[in-house]
Structure formats: C-alpha cells, structure tokens
Q: What sequence folds into this?
C-alpha cells in the first residue's frame, strides 16, 4: 500500500503500459472505495495485480498515471468483502479527508467502473460486449454497436438578487441543508435554456445575465455539473413542492447549513459570500 501523490496525476486511457507494472488500484464496490488508513492519510493498494487481495483483476481499466505508475479502476461485485487490513468506504464520506485532486481521480475511477458494470451487454441486441482496443469504448461482439462512458450534464446556478442569494432545500437533501438550484439537461436543450427552465420550474423566478462559473465531474453516478451565476430578472418565489421543501433569499451573514466545500455548489455560495465581503469592506 502507499499514499499516492495525486497532484502529479495525468489522465490517460489505453496505452502500451505493461499489465504487470505495479499500479495504484481504485477498487470500487458501487460508490465505495477500498482504502487503508495510516493516521490521517488514505492509502491505496500499490501492486501489479489484485489477486493477493483475493479480488479478480480482469476488466480493470487504466485511468491514468502518477509519474510512471499506472492508476487502474476495478469494479467488484456488491457482495465483495474487504481483505484484512482494508475497508470499503463511501467516496462521499472521504470528503474533508481527501484532497480535491484525489476526489477528481476517484470520480474518474467511479464513472469508468460504473460504465463497465452497466455495459456488459449490448443495449441494441443484448449480446456480450468487449473492450475496444485503443479506445475508451465497448463494442458488441455480435452487431458491433459501440458504447462510450455515459456522462449526464446538469446545470447548477447561483441566482443573485442585490445582496442576497437564492438557496433551496430539495426533498432529497439531508435535514437543514440548503443549496443553489440544479437540474439535469434535457435532450435538445442548451445549457442556457436548462438554467432558465430549472429556476422557473422549481421557484417561479426568471433570470438574466447568465455567466459561466466552473464545472465539476460528479460521479454519483455520472454527472457533469456545469455551474453558472445569474441575476434575478423577475418573479417572486413559488416553490414546486414535488422537488423543493423551501426556498429563500439569503444574505452572506445569515447562511444556513451548506454543502461540502469540495462541491461546486459550495464554491458558488463561497463566491457569493466573498463578493459580499468585498462590498462591505469598500
Ligand atoms: Zn449488439
């Protein structure tokens, strides 16, 4: 085992890296990652293959390198038990312990292992699939249909009205947690249209001056969050009770319980709060 230096991670896929090379392994049981703890540090298996852990290593995916060391993702069945000295921990529960770079690499591993798990048979004809050499793709052994990792874009937006930000409590949130609005992009929709629709549907507000902010892969199980800022244009809050428990305008000095700092949702809210700080100090 070893503690990888994720600042040096370079993403990559199929290559001429020897299968026998010692690799860092992201072994995933659903969204649980196999780790060992060394004090405050998180360790990963560093080994040529995973047989000594009692785990099969076929269908492992190369996800990149740290220096000359490959990093591989391997999904294991739900009934898999952690080997002695190791434990499966939910990646979300490692927030606050792992760096943002570690989370980004874990996100990549999670999405690729989930894609592998859910694409073992062709979606067109039902025959078994196989990895396509030289490409991050699976091809059907009967009809040739190609499947690529599935990525579902979602928008997330900080709506600002003067000195306040629109925060809402979605039904699926833990108690007390409030965040900015978010929703999945529908087929045929632009990101801009999606922002306007989601804000309108969930709170009855119209927005203007949409600006791109940042993006973040969100591997639960395969979203790409595209974050924007926007200004309130018109309308008063009328929540859609099917999705939202409550929504309000919050000033920077009275914010409720917020999402984890690693999330782009929190980065949007922190951006708002920092702007309010600057306004106060002027
Ligand atoms: Zn097929």
A:
């Amino acid at each position: 085992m070893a503690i990888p230096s994720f600042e040096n991670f370079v993403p990559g896929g199929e290559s001429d890296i020897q299968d026998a090379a010692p690799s860092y392994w992201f072994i995933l049981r659903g969204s649980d990652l196999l780790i060992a703890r060394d004090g405050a540090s998180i360790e990963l298996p560093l080994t040529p293959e995973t047989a000594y852990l009692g785990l099969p290593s076929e269908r492992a995916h190369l996800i990149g390198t740290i220096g000359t060391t490959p990093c591989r993702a391997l999904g294991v069945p739900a009934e898999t038990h952690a080997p002695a000295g190791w434990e499966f921990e939910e990646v979300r529960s490692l927030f606050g312990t792992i760096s943002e770079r570690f989370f980004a690499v874990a996100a990549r591993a999670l999405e690729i292992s989930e894609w592998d798990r859910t694409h073992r048979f062709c979606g067109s004809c039902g025959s078994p699939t196989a990895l396509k050499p030289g490409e991050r793709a699976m091809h059907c052994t009967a009809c040739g249909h190609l499947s690529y990792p599935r990525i579902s874009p979602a928008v997330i937006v900080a709506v600002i009205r003067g000195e306040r930000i629109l925060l809402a409590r979605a039904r699926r949130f833990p108690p007390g947690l409030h965040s900015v609005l978010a929703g999945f992009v529908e087929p045929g929709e632009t990101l801009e249209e999606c922002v306007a629709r989601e804000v309108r549907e969930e709170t009855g507000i119209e927005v203007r001056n949409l600006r791109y902010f940042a993006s973040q892969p969100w591997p639960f199980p395969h979203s790409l969050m595209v974050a924007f800022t926007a200004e309130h244009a018109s309308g008063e809050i009328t929540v859609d009770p099917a999705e939202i428990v409550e929504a309000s305008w919050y000033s920077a000095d009275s914010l409720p319980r917020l999402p984890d700092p690693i999330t782009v949702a929190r980065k949007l809210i922190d951006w708002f709060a920092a702007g309010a700080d600057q306004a106060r100090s002027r």
About this structure: The mean pLDDT is 91.
